[in-house]
Specification:
six-stranded antiparallel beta sheet, Jelly Rolls, mainly beta, elongated, Tachylectin-2, Chain A, 36 strands, single chain, disordered N terminus
């Protein structure tokens, strides 16, 4: 069974998972973890207050080409190179098609020399295609029926080696629907994850055929997302959230047009006065094994003592049902802004099985790392939360030893370390029980959060904000699943609880 053939329930249950800041007085206390010492997680009672879905085929801050700024020729039969290309295989070209007459068609994608990866749409023939040209030889790797007329939006998206052709017939730019997608056929001819291959290709677009093709505005740049998941607050080593100008930084997995490999990782800000004001500010890609990948589901920690960012992520970028592991890197670069391609290494963990969802905090002079263990990914996924800790004074990746794990569950992930009142806790999400279990720092289960549990396995990102506590999470709402298969989820959800006694 392929990822495309799985339905969401089958995958969730069987074959898948799913510089320095200033804290805000009155919004986010300078020491939120120490306020209201008598509060425990079980004094909090959450209800959903915001639910929305970030959706952008091009991330707004990451447009590399805009014909409204840099006009180019619009001749039929011409493929126009924009002179710009992505550093990682996560990109989109969006074309406003004003009119196509006769035997004309529109094309867009990535091209250079005798190599190209293009999507096409021929309204007269009623066909959309994906074609790959290598060494001057062109192969159509996928096609589908496409009935459009008049003006419409046309988009070609690259997520890893998956290429998708979409149209928007609403004229609003908000009605995108996929026509055809293909990964394996593309990969059989070219590997766009290899820097030497992708580096020779620019965003490209144009008309083709003998008919008349009139195009309007064209934009190209880094792919955004069709949904988000796996939230994790960017934090200082001691657990304080990273906040600047009233905005808290967090990482999200940006859902792509398909399975786990099509997703990638990004840094966002969320306005603490209005959580629906969510803005993507950085994109992170990771170089390993000769490829640039969209590894995701991790955490960024700023270590004030050393002036470095610690970046941890899960190796979902090349997932093939043969294991997952946690990787890491440190950098002095500002990973909270811009596009970054970061070399990584495997994190040495005290486990012999797969791992993902790292959560790192320094507590009482010791680094604590919560993570997910998984002894199997096929024929069914089995996974549970675990905790490791290092010696006092050691660095985060040194001599980690196992503290404990909850092996009595097998569909539990989304590990988060957070202090509430006087105590530190490990939070997770149990997809079977549909609850958020709460553990102490010895991995003894203490109870569950009082919070709504939606679809998928939503991660419980808990934090105090002003006179409330927030729980930021996601759900399993898909985008265009009949065409794209599982992976294009989810909505972002914010829950709130009044702090007991009106205090944090």
């Amino acid at each position: 069974m392929t990822a495309h053939e799985m339905d969401r329930r089958t995958l969730l249950r069987g074959a898948g998972v799913a510089g320095v800041s200033t804290a805000l007085t009155g919004l986010l206390g300078t020491a939120p973890a120490t306020a209201a010492p008598d509060v425990t997680p079980f004094d909090l009672h959450f209800s959903t207050t915001e639910r929305f879905r970030p959706f952008d085929l091009i991330a707004p801050r990451f447009v590399q080409y805009d014909s409204a700024v840099t006009p180019s020729p619009r001749a039929s039969g011409t493929l126009v190179s924009t002179g710009a290309g992505p550093r990682a295989p996560f990109a989109s070209v969006l074309v406003e098609v004003q009119r196509i007459d006769g035997a004309g068609a529109v094309q867009a994608g990535w091209a250079g020399g005798d190599t190209s990866v293009l999507g096409t749409l021929d309204p007269g023939a009623g066909r959309a295609t994906i074609e790959v040209t290598v060494g001057g030889t062109t192969t159509v790797v996928a096609s589908a029926e496409a009935r459009v007329s008049g003006s419409f939006g046309f988009a070609v998206v690259l997520n890893e080696n998956a290429v998708t052709v979409l149209v928007d017939t609403t004229g609003t730019g908000t009605g995108w629907q996929p026509l055809v997608t293909e990964r394996n056929g593309v990969r059989a001819l070219i590997d766009l994850r290899v820097p030497a291959v992708l580096g020779n290709l620019d965003h490209a677009y144009g008309g083709r055929g003998d008919g008349s093709v009139r195009l309007g505005r064209v934009r190209a740049g880094y792919f955004g997302q069709v949904g988000v998941r796996d939230p994790h607050v960017v934090q200082h080593a001691d657990g304080r959230p990273y906040v600047r100008d009233g905005k808290m930084y967090l990482t999200l997995t940006n859902a792509g047009l398909g399975f786990f490999q099509q997703a990638h990782w990004a840094v966002w800000t969320i306005d603490l006065a209005d959580p629906t004001r969510l803005e993507q500010v950085a994109i992170l890609f990771f170089e390993r094994d000769g490829a640039v990948l969209g590894d995701h589901a991790g955490q960024i920690v700023y270590d004030d003592r050393t002036g470095r960012f610690i970046v941890l992520m899960s190796s979902w970028g090349d997932f093939d049902f043969r294991g997952v592991h946690i990787r890491h890197a440190t950098t002095g670069a500002n990973v909270l802004s811009g596009v970054h391609v970061i070399p990584t290494q495997r994190l040495p963990l005290p486990t012999t099985v797969s791992s993902w969802d790292p959560a790192l905090t320094r507590v009482d002079g010791r680094w604590r790392l919560a993570f997910v263990e998984s002894e199997a990914q096929q024929p069914a996924f089995v996974f549970h939360p675990a905790l490791a800790a290092g010696p006092v004074g050691a660095d985060y990746a040194e001599s980690l030893s196992r503290v404990g794990a909850d092996t009595g569950v097998d569909q539990t992930e989304g590990t988060i370390i957070q202090r509430v009142g006087r105590s530190w806790y490990v939070f997770a999400s149990d997809g079977d029980a549909r609850t958020y279990p709460v553990y102490d720092l010895r991995m003894r289960k203490l109870g569950t959060l009082d919070a709504p549990y939606g679809t998928n396995i939503p991660h419980p990102v808990l934090l105090p904000v002003g006179r409330e506590w927030w729980l930021i999470t996601f759900d399993g709402t898909q985008f265009a699943e009949p065409v794209l298969g599982y992976g294009g989820h989810g909505d972002l959800i914010v829950m709130r609880s009044p702090a007991p006694g009106g205090r944090r």
